[in-house]
Amino acid sequence: AMEEPASGWFLFWASRTSADEQSWGRFTNDALTHFEASNYQAVLRQKLRQLRQVSDIEEYNGKYSSLIFRVENMSEVDQVSYYCDGLKRASQAYVKLRNPTTLSEAMDQAVKFEVSHFGGNRFSNTLEANRKISQLNQPLRDQLLRDQSLRDQPSRNPTTETYDKKASHKWSYKPGHYGSPEQTRPGPICYHCKEPGHFKRNCSKLNNENNSKQPRE
């Protein structure tokens, strides 16, 4: 499809050119005369010679291809030479050392070099950086895991827990283990009243309780 300026000129050309004179040769000649300067090919070659790679190889190849496709009657040797001259220094040395004979071969060699050297280094550097960061953050990750495990444990009521500990200390009957001074004395301890000096069967408190529960006559 024609761009707007080209389609407008075509309608103008068709209206001004008789049907007998409308041929492909006449059309191309008039079109080139209208749209191209007389030194158009020389300008294209100059642009190719001045083109330089400033970014990645894909961008350079795209710009070079867009120009080379419009250049007429350019030898393969000149196409390769212009292309290599515009490459970055390291890529240029590598491609010239391979001595490519076609433009497509030169482009393939340049892509291969930059991917294996610059692209590969960037990938390796990223992996190395990630590994170092992982090592530096290992203590922090361990601490976070410990904190998370503590948060996952069932919550406890501090007041109830303190009361239970005090109660266990008060009512402990094992000599020498969380007991009061009276409880830690040697001798038997009553399982009913928890008082030392007698057994449950001799507990006066238990006997009094039992007597109080008996029905009166």
UniProtKB/TrEMBL annotation:
Residues 190-205 form the CCHC-type domain. Residues 146-189 are annotated as: Disordered. This is CCHC-type domain-containing protein. GO terms for molecular function: nucleic acid binding; zinc ion binding. It comes from Phytophthora megakarya. Keywords: Metal-binding, Zinc, Zinc-finger. InterPro entries: Ty3_capsid (IPR045358), Znf_CCHC (IPR001878), Znf_CCHC_sf (IPR036875). Pfam families: Ty3_capsid, zf-CCHC.
